[in-house]
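Quick check before the chapter quiz. The format below is the same one you will see on the exam, so make sure you can read both the input and the output lines.
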Amino acid sequence: MASTAFQIAERCVHSGIEIYVCPACKNIVRYENDALLCDICRKTFPIQDGIPDFILEELSQSRDPVLRRMRFIDRMARIYETRLWYPIVLRIFGGFQSPSFAQLIRTVSEKVQLTKGRVLDVACGPGTYGRRIASPTREVFGIDVSMGMLRQGAAYTTNQGIPNMHFARARVEALPFEDGLFDATLCCGSLHLFADTAIALREMARVMRPRAILSVFTFAEGRGGVLKFRRVREWYRRNGGLHVFNPPELEQYLSASGFTDFEPEVSGSILTFSARKSAA
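Here is the expected output.
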């Protein structure tokens, strides 16, 4: 049975929807007729299955090769957290020295375990990392470009009875949040896919409070898996939009984007690190 307008509105209020702003002008949006409206830009952002959609363009027409594969990513949502995806990817790209899926989740989560308040989960997929840290004292807002991933995450959250986990469709380059809102940010398995690393990091920094922690998993020029070969890295960069970092390069990106206290750890070709938004 279809939800009434009142039921949808009530669900939206309890799903943290009042926190969102227009990704373009950062004006507070208002709920009306199953959508969020910006009175400044005059843009309307639909709500699908309780998930606000702040991406109005057709991504299949994008020049970004990652965004053009959105239909494949949508279909992949059901296997993303199974043995058919993460363990295989970690071994092929990271090598046998890379951490297991469980170890990776633990490493990323430990960096924010003392954080209370609001946490942003960038390119969250089905909430793989955010769901595991959401709690009564830690409210997580996950954003992703894939509606398929977000719907799967919402299903997991409902079935597992996880509190304080919210989802929205948005791009990291235009986050639908006001400045200084978050006490921590996660970015797991995606930093290497963003078309412009500097813009992505600057936008994350914008929405974080001073000294808020950033916890990341990405790929590095390490000693394991296929990414240890330069020609393989170049091929993936050219054909798949995959940016494989080295720690000094990444530290420069972070410093230029307003982060300090860079603490990297490389296992095979898997890079996990934390950094903090500058206090200035």
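If your answer matched, good. DSSP finds nine helices and eleven strands in the chain.
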